Amino acid sequence: MNEIKNVNVRVGDEVVVIAGTYKGKKGKVLSVNPADNTCVVKDVNIISKHKKMRKQGEKSEIKKMEGDINISNVQIVCGKCGKATRVGHQVDNGVKHRVCKKCGNVLDKKYVKPKTKAEEKAEATTEEKVAAKKPLQRREVKHVAESTIKKPASAKTAATAKPNEKGGK
């Protein structure tokens, strides 16, 4: 009977608290416990842990740390539209992804939407245009400038000739 539930919140997601004392506060998910249906959100549900001195030389202290919050009390914030949203699911090429119910944006961080051939061609032509218009980098400009500047031969001979003439007189 103790089945681990499938939850839509994952570590690293940006969430907003929708119920409780910290309602309206946004934070990043630090850990998820599907068995208890809870998660830990940064700077939300701050609790105090009291540590008593046990040995000589130790100090008693009060640690402030984040406590668990029920997953039903948080909603994921969509990266594209920036709103708290429910999570939908979509299957692409046999892989299931979490999507925003409001705008349809994929919420999974590692997911990269496959491109069509037309999109790839358009991207390739824009990259060629950018490469053609791209100005020389700072190092390239310096290198090109040094190689094109040549010292006149007469200046070298004049500089070397003067000490010899003075030495000869």
Describe this structure in words.
The mean pLDDT is 79. Strand 1 (14-17) and strand 2 form a beta hairpin. The chain is built from 3 helices and 10 strands. The chain is an alpha+beta fold and 169 residues long. The strands form 3 sheets. It has a 6-stranded antiparallel sheet, with no helix packed on it. Strands 4-5 form a two-stranded antiparallel sheet.
Structure, briefly:
The protein is an alpha+beta fold and 169 residues long. It is built from three helices and ten strands, in the order ββββββββββααα. The protein has a six-stranded antiparallel β-sheet, with no helix packed on it.
How are the strands of the largest sheet arranged? 6-3-2-1-7-8
Helix content: 25-40%
| Overall form | extended
Oligomerization state? single chain
Task: State the end-to-end distance.
Answer: 111 Å
**Count of β-strands:** 10
Helix-strand string = EEEEEEEEEEHHH
Average of per-residue pLDDT values: 79
Structural class: alpha+beta
Rg (CA only): 32 Å
Low-pLDDT regions? none
Main sheet record: 6 strands, antiparallel
The count of helical stretches stands at 3
The share of residues in extended strands comes to 25-35%
Question: Would you spell out the secondary-structure blueprint of this structure?
Answer:
Elements: E1 14-17, E2 26-33, E3 38-41, E4 46-51, E5 61-66, E6 68-70, E7 74-77, E8 84-85, E9 87-92, E10 95-100, H1 117-133, H2 138-148, H3 153-168
